């Protein structure tokens, strides 16, 4: 790893101090009308690589790992959260459209979109260990320390056995009586699945046992501001949970900024 990369905890700590010194005011969402709304505060705004078509975002051993999509532009990198600079560790062959990543048992699992093939790497060396296949599209992936948890753009979420990498059970995500489709990038946080909903500014909190939506976060103020300032910016996508700060790191496809957010 390059010397200018440093731990996420130190980077975020420095940014919080700077934020405090500048008397940055926290921005709170207004969620009075939605009983499932989860309030949040923006702690810090961070730089992000505006060329990254973000598909997966996760934190492993105080390092931010990001995966990107699009043919000939798909890679996995370690990201410096203080500068947005990235150190590419895996570059996929041009025929693959990369999707989400997660780290479990010191292995990185990566999906591809319509190729129906995934890859497993050593989390320390980034050496490819194996490939695996699946019958659907690949969108987001996370884990609960027991199973891999995968989305395919539908209302389904699949739990995969880590040995066979085949589904062992499936849930259907329901918001009241409505099936929620376009479930995208995933993050498992304190017993719940958090999911971006593609082409929206929403992140949902989902009960992994029932598939029921138990919370919603509306990031429209952030998403609308980004797209107004940066016309080339695409949709919100990317959720990483930092256990040390107990905050979420969120960003979007081709966004020049990322945000550190604390749930209320």
What are the SSEs and their pairings?
Blueprint: H1 8-21, E1 40-47, E2 54-60, E3 63-68, E4 75-79, E5 86-91, E6 98-104, E7 107-112, E8 117-122, E9 128-133, E10 141-143, E11 148-151, E12 156-160, E13 167-172, E14 174-175, E15 178-179, E16 183-189, E17 192-197, E18 202-206, E19 213-218, H2 220-229, E20 236-242, E21 247-252, E22 257-263
Antiparallel strand pairs: 1-22, 2-3, 3-4, 4-5, 6-7, 7-8, 8-9, 10-11, 11-12, 12-13, 14-15, 16-17, 17-18, 18-19, 20-21, 21-22
Describe, in plain words, how this protein is organized in 3D.
The structure is a single chain. The chain is mainly beta. The chain contains two helices and 22 strands. The chain has helices at residues 8-21, 220-229; strands at 40-47, 54-60, 63-68, 75-79, 86-91, 98-104, 107-112, 117-122, 128-133, 141-143, 148-151, 156-160, 167-172, 174-175, 178-179, 183-189, 192-197, 202-206, 213-218, 236-242, 247-252, 257-263. It has a four-stranded antiparallel sheet with strand order 1-22-21-20, with helices on one face. A hairpin with a 4-residue loop joins strand 17 (192-197) and strand 18. 38% of the residues are buried.
Notable traits:
single chain, 264 residues, 4-stranded antiparallel beta sheet, mainly beta
User: Strand order within the widest sheet?
Assistant: 1-22-21-20
Number of helices: 2
Q: What's the rounded overall pLDDT mean?
A: 89
**Major sheet summary line:** 4 strands, antiparallel
The gyration radius over C-alpha positions equals 17 Å
Number of strands: 22
Structural class: mainly beta
Question: How much strand?
Answer: over 45%
Give the CA-CA distance, first to last residue: 35 Å
Q: Which word captures the global form? A: globular
Order of helices and strands: HEEEEEEEEEEEEEEEEEEEHEEE
């Amino acid at each position: 790893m390059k010397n200018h990369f440093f731990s996420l905890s130190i980077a975020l700590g420095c940014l919080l101090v700077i934020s405090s010194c500048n008397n940055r005011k926290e921005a709170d969402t207004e969620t009075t009308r939605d009983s499932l709304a989860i309030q949040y505060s923006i702690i810090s705004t961070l730089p992000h690589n505006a060329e990254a078509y973000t598909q997966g975002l996760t934190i492993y051993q105080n390092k931010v790992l990001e995966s990107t999509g699009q043919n000939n532009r798909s890679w996995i990198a370690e990201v410096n959260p203080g500068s947005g600079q990235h150190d590419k560790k895996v570059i996929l062959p041009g025929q693959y459209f990369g999707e989400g990543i997660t780290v479990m048992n010191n292995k990185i699992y990566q999906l591809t979109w319509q190729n129906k093939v995934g890859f497993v790497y050593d989390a320390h060396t980034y050496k490819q260990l194996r490939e695996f296949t699946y019958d659907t599209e690949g969108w987001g992936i996370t884990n609960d320390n027991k199973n891999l948890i995968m989305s395919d753009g539908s209302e389904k979420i699949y739990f995969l056995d880590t040995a066979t990498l085949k589904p062992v059970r499936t849930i259907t995500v329901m918001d009241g009586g409505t099936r929620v489709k376009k479930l995208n990038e995933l993050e498992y946080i304190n017993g719940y699945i958090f999911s971006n909903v593609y082409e929206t500014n929403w992140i949902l909190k989902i009960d992994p046992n029932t598939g029921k939506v138990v919370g919603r976060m509306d990031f429209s103020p952030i998403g609308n501001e980004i797209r107004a300032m940066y016309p080339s910016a695409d949709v919100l996508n990317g959720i990483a949970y930092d256990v040390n700060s107990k905050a979420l790191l969120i960003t979007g496809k081709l966004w020049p900024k990322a945000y550190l957010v604390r749930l209320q």
